[in-house]
Design goal:
Pfam families: MHYT. Keywords: Membrane, Transmembrane, Transmembrane helix. This is MHYT domain-containing protein. It comes from Streptomyces polyrhachis. InterPro entries: MHYT_dom (IPR005330). With 275 residues, the protein is mainly α. The protein folds into two domains: 236 residues, no CATH class; 34 residues, no CATH class. It is 69% helix and 8% strand. The strands form three sheets. A three-stranded antiparallel β-sheet has the order 1-7-6. Helix 1 packs antiparallel against helix 2 and helix 2 packs antiparallel against helix 3. The chain is elongated and about 60 Å long. The termini are far apart.
Amino acid sequence: MQDAVPVDGFTYDLLTPVVAYCMAVLGSALGLRCTMRALAVEPSRRLGWLALGAVAIGTGIFTMHFIAMMGFTARDVQINYDLLITLASLVIAVVVVGIGVFIVGYRGRTPLALTGAGMITGLGVACMHYTGMAGMRMDGARQMYSAPVVTLSVIIAVVAATAALWLAMTVKTFGVAIGAALIMGVAVCGMHYTAMEALSVHLTHAAGELTGRTPAEILTPILIGPVLLLVFVGLFVGMDPLEREWRHRDEEDALLAAETPEAGNFEPSMFDRRD
């Protein structure tokens, strides 16, 4: 086996990392909001919101990963993707994240439930990444990973995802929910780029002639469906009547806290049922 070939994860400079992070934040914000919504309704209506939350977070992770991979190239190596394994990584992300979401939805916001759900959600991020990487096909080359850096990438995903879930489910205001989504975006992107540092590409034999198709051209058709799915979830959440009520209550709670000096123990009432 030959020496490792140079790789570049930022072929388009900061364009792909920034767009990828935004998609991770969008999916996380929608997913966390759906999970919070599930905790505010009757148990009989909880299933749909939790499933929607899992789809949003899992799709956001998937979209982030492959947008970031648009900027990944290896010198003199043609990169392609196995469609079935690529789509399987989306299913894995939704299912594993869904387990974490359902733990919170049906076990409540206890420390044990939040910690367990955060760990599972972080593992879902890692499972999606490495399954997606398993679907990568390199003509005349193979992937190798540094075990310590892989371990570090999983730890980053688990710790940041757990922190985001704790923040979103315990502070319970719209602004803090956005902050939690930003942290979740850090979990997804931090895990991804740390994991890519663990990767080295080694030539096994002389590569064939490059076809000229870039990773961006290959991945764009694959991403159309997941991006549209995130848009659909966003529209569904945005049109939910309780969403507007929550935001209005957040404004009232903030105003009350500002006008009441002794409101140190004041807690917003997002999860008070008024329907």
